[in-house]
Amino acid sequence: MKKIFLSIVTILLTVIACKNDDTQSLDAFYENYYEVNILPTLTNFKSEIETQITYTQEFKEAKNLTNLEKLQNQWKTTVNAYALTRVYNFGKVKNLFYDVNIYNFPVNTTTIENVIAKKEVADIESFATKSSTIKGLGTLEYLLFNNQDTNKALTLLENDDFRVDYLLSVSQETLNQINSLINFWEDGYKTEFSTSNGKSCTDNARCLAFNQIINVLDVNKVTKIGKPAGLEKSDNIDPTLLEAYRSQFSLELIKASLQEVERVYSSSDVNFKSIVDDIDTTKELSKQIALNFADVYSNIDAISTSLYTAVTENNTKVETLYNSFTKLNNHFSVDGASLLSVTVLPTDNDGD
């Protein structure tokens, strides 16, 4: 009887030790998830918006086409860097609207023009209180590209010093927002996130991070392709609903966010594939996900024009791309979520 009692105690201690090891492993995974995936991506975006500010100051000193095109190209680099960060827009970060303040689309061009016409104060303090529809990366795009008209954008900037000041202040406010976001993570949220192991998805690191992968894929499909192309509830085509349509950079941003989803799932040093493959030892789900990623990339590359032009011309390749996102997302929202015991939250198709 004594031997049986000792055996039971030994088993219980082993189970407790294993649970403690699992918890430590979980904490380490999500702590590293922040250090390896989230922080470098946020820091990279910060670096690009700082370059944006430098180029804007150069343009202010010499307002010419060469410097404007330099600014336009940098905007594309900057917004591409931001697209990568959207995979990490979850939990309290999303609740604090950093994403909306940094890049909200569509912008309100009428209000932007009214602010410029009235010569309202353009500084960091005033911008902090203004609507996200007249600041952020979307406003920068409008000021730099106008409505797909570089010559008009240049003329407007050349003839109005306040317009250039507005351009600079929007860039500086965007830097202020990313600095605040990084500080929010560093000042405690990274620890809160990495140790979140509650039953509720809002208090569970795995559920938050994996749901954001699902959200990014769904927003790409519904908001950034389906609605503008008339493939959702309405068959009305409206290419002005596209993200970054003024710069005709919509498709590139979809691809960028897709690449970050793929990286964090399979190729990062801290990735979800390692967890999935530990459970699914056949590795069949990861194989199917890899095939579907390849399919989506192929369908993106098959569109030889801008997405704006493809949608305008009702190119059937847009629908093919839309459908391939459905298949890829199903692997995450159905198969992956089930395998990881993750509750799938409703997707916010009005943003990221």
From TrEMBL:
It holds the Pfam family Peptidase_M75. It is found in: Cell envelope. Residues 39-325 form the Imelysin-like domain. Coiled coil: none annotated. InterPro entries: Imelysin-like (IPR018976), Imelysin-like_IPPA (IPR034984), Imelysin_sf (IPR038352). Keywords: Lipoprotein, Signal. This is Lipoprotein. It comes from Wenyingzhuangia heitensis.
